[in-house]
Amino acid sequence: MSKLVIVESPAKAKTIGKYLGKDYKVIASVGHIRDLPKSKLGVDVERDFTPLYENKKEKASLIKELKTNAKSSDTVYLATDPDREGEAISWHLANILGLDTAEPIRVTFSEITKSGINTGMTNPRSLDMDLVNAQQARRILDRILGYKLSPFLWKKVRRGLSAGRVQSVTVRLIVDREKEIEAFVAKEYWSVDAQFTTDNNKKPFNAKLTEISGKKIELSDKKVTDKVLDDLKDAQFIVKGVKKSTRKKQPAPPFTTSTLQQEASGKLSFNSKRTMKAAQELYEGVELAKHGAVGLITYIRTDSLRVSADAQTAAADLINKLYGKEYLPDKPRAYKSKGNSQDAHEAIRPSIIEITPEEVKSSLSADQYKLYKLIWERFMASQMANALLNTVSADIVSGEYLFKANGYTVAFDGFTKLYIAADAEKDEGGALPALIANEKLNVIDLSGNQHFTQPPPRYTEASLIKALEENGIGRPSTYAPTISTILDRQYVERQQKQLKPTVLGNVITDLLKEHFNNIVDTKFTAQMETNLDKIEIGDEVWVEVLRDFYGDFEKTLTKAETEMEGKRVKVPDEPTDIPCELCGKNMVIKIGPYGKFLGCSAFPECKGTKKIVSEAGGSCPVCGKKMLAKKSKKGKPFFGCENYSECGFMTWDTPVPDKCPKCDSTLFKKTGKDKKIYCAKENCGYEAVDN
What global pTM score does this model have? Predict the structure, then answer.
């Protein structure tokens, strides 16, 4: 009996094929094989938003192959990813191959392992049309916004711009944060900090003034602070009381899609796109020396914290083996998911708990290993015992002035033996010396320190993802592509890890806020996401949701076009002091379809333009001129000589500030498996290990 299994990716097909054996043929659809047309709206809004799907032209030969294999197979199983998008791909496949969607042709795998595949194959079901309709509603909603709103931006700003249900409100968050920063007025405040020792312990410890005459201190300026310092000059300090306690620290829960992206940003400096690429590879399967092809982690698109009982048992057994029984909690840990989370899948965890990161390191790429190690350690720590801290809080007085000193020692390291989250609470101070009530202290230092309140920080990818999740905007699977889109569209730019709106991003956001406020309103967007979730569980009819949205949107669009009749919005240029090589006037930074460039401020009289170059530091080992940071056509960073056309020197390796000890040339840093610091000067040969 021949059986055909259709999955989404070739890597997944390869892994699953090895487990299923010779009676099965596994083929990849390579994503969607049918979609809305690119050249037109492709939605009949007058006929209940009927989508006008068409087969993808580039998939013609694959569709022919799928049809041939389906005809010659006794059974066809659709095994695309277990989510909205995967269900829709299966539905499209069923339509093209003439399969009955009410028959048990749909199988899903929460993990690509032998047991995960067996479980999926022995529990086939019919297609879930609620899931399909939730995906259709999202796709049609995004298509309407893209194909109706984007042309408005083309007419009123410039061609090539886009707006979107999730991307536009995401840009607004970044724009609004930047406006908060610009409007922020710093306030001065002061603190009084002390260092003390005891007669029995000469190691200084820190304390901070917290109260004066029983009231919390407010030291607004130097004058007030100096008065306090004068009062305390030559004063005696006495320990009023010491409070000792034990505090429990609980481990962080296993990863959801959102927290994985946040933690990978904080701990590994991975952007969300890089994280999801490595995670997808780990889920779909990697060829391991001892195990063959295995999916190393469970399904990666989830906002659930649920963990199976089998996984908890396996984790407990391994924790007991590696660390001892004392590192196990009294009972297996269960974590509560957020109220709006989808519980179809477990939290992200290792699919085979016993496979440690070190065991598979040689079989993984650098990114795969780092991410697997992060996921494995986080999950294992989530099943371990609490850490216990012995905390000490001391009140130190001098007359009406009260100082506080805090310290702690680790009584039991618990889960921290393996893992500490990037955003873990920082404990104040280290160990305090043994302090006794009424004990006199020796003053080592007493000083006033000036501080200023700080503006809210710019978003990083991690904090932006957290804000999107907290506001109910998008779904975890949309965060990475949304951030990539707003960066590619030049609405936002990266400055180190921070995300800053461009001039173009500000202009677009202001225009949308004025004429399409709902589209960039967080509450409206979150409600739309809730409606899509309700469609998924059968509580809303997808056509009704689209009808409710479209009626108001069409009126708003008509009104905006009337109000903006004959008007265009200019994107301001950023001034520079760089002279134009043609006319000598200062150039300005402009944003074009391919990014920023320098143009003459006298345009259109002068058409001088110039690329914006970023100096990388260091000098070329061939000709001695400056090194520039550049990007390949695919966006990969590299470094080249500013005189590249004549010199020809380029490298993927990063220039470092240190000079070569042999020839004084710029050194370069090579990453990856063969990481090192080396000199690229011909005939030098200097190399050093990069720690």
Answer: 0.85
